[in-house]
Amino acid sequence: MRNGRRIFFPLQSDASSRYAPYTLSLLVFIATLAVVIGFVLNNILDEWEVSLSGSVTVHIPPDIRLSPDREEEKVNRLLQELLRTPGVARVEKLSSGEVKEILQPWFSNGDIFDFVPLPTMVHVLLLEGGRVDLERLRGAIEKIDPDVELNDRSLWQRQLLILFRGIQSLCVIVVLSMMGAMGVIVFLLARASMVNHLDVVDIMQVVGAHDDLVIRVFRRRALRLGLYGTLLGMGLCFFLVFGVLIFLGDDIDTVIRGDVMPSLWQWLTVPMVGVVILLMVSYVTGRAIRSFLRDKEK
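Given the sequence above, the corresponding structure tokens read:
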């Protein structure tokens, strides 16, 4: 029936309308969480590729047997040896503050650095595309100090990059799977709702309601339920993410080093998942109702 321009269709609440929003909210929650995790992994990979690519780190342990001047002389000899190595672009000696920041995650109490000597750490940047004989370099610096450690992070970095890329791909698969599951559920719920209201639909068609009107009414109802489920699922996801951040508090820099949390534009992209879901709900509902009406006429 029509009241002016307003369409009135007496649809009663049924099991599909009662439980559909909660079913959709769970799938939306999983899909949104996968998107956020994908953004975090992407930022981690970007930061690692910038900061670790083409570099090695030299750890020089403190020697309490040497005076400060002799210790400084030994460090300078090591720096000169590194600079003479073919393929080395630049050598950067980290400050004590930077060393403390690197070591902080392994110590619950930062005051310990006031009582123990800090090692000297040197960041060696390699020429782009250049190759360095690390074994030869390790042998050269061990002649100066056998306790010096040369840390080539490229091997485990590549392994972690492969692992994180795989997890990113898994996040994409999870999102697509949740979308597919939501499409199937919406399709089945739309047809179930049509069956539950078949008597009402028959009466409305007798008084002149055409198929497009029926589809529009059911689509509007599905969008209302879908909007509720989408907002609930995304709200739970944001509550979980920000709850974890608040719980970690000041320890967040220890758990996650660097600017790897989603940026502002990435956070603004997340609600687009909800928009895509609502568009899918509208489209699938229309297809389900139209196919049901077509089958009904046969």
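The two ends are 25 Å apart (CA to CA). Try to locate this feature in the token string yourself.
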